[in-house]
Design goal:
Elements: H1 2-7, H2 16-19, H3 26-37, E1 47-48, E2 55-56, H4 59-70, E3 73-83, E4 86-97, E5 102-113, H5 127-145, H6 164-171
Antiparallel strand pairs: 1-2, 3-4, 4-5
Length: 175
Amino acid sequence: MSEIVKVIPELDKIKLTDLEGMGLDERTNVVARNYILNKQPHAPWLKKHPIYGNQYLPIDKVEWLLTVLFGKWKVEVKEVKQIANSMQCTIRLYYWNNFNNEYDWQDGVGASPMQQDSGGGALKPNGVMLATPIAKTNAIKDAADTIGRVFGRDLNRKDLIGYEGEVEKFKDLTK
């Protein structure tokens, strides 16, 4: 437990890739990792969806966070299919876990409606081509937000439990 005392003042500056070289015991590493992954996303990055009005974190920020926090990550497309007038994509997001030196993973699912001719008529000829990458993007964001709040999880939830308490119980030891 005493190792968390050394880490606490720096937790807001530490990346997950930094934890590996710090020689932390397993419990301290888990507490620090959970704290970093479950901080709120950087407020200026958040966008408001033009149709639904909910907040979201754009894909470029999600990909940047994956790179900065984990160093290595990759996406495996598991399935793409048409459901009614939408494209649906299921992916597996792999991200490097420096603590155990192997990839962890989360599955994600996303969908996007295909464009139709005006008046709700026939599907546009390029509807699949346009909707599929958006469905994949939505699936990546869906998988990433299961990793932690920093990726946009809990943005539109009212009742939340904070992870700060896990670190707070060690703060008295730093005085």
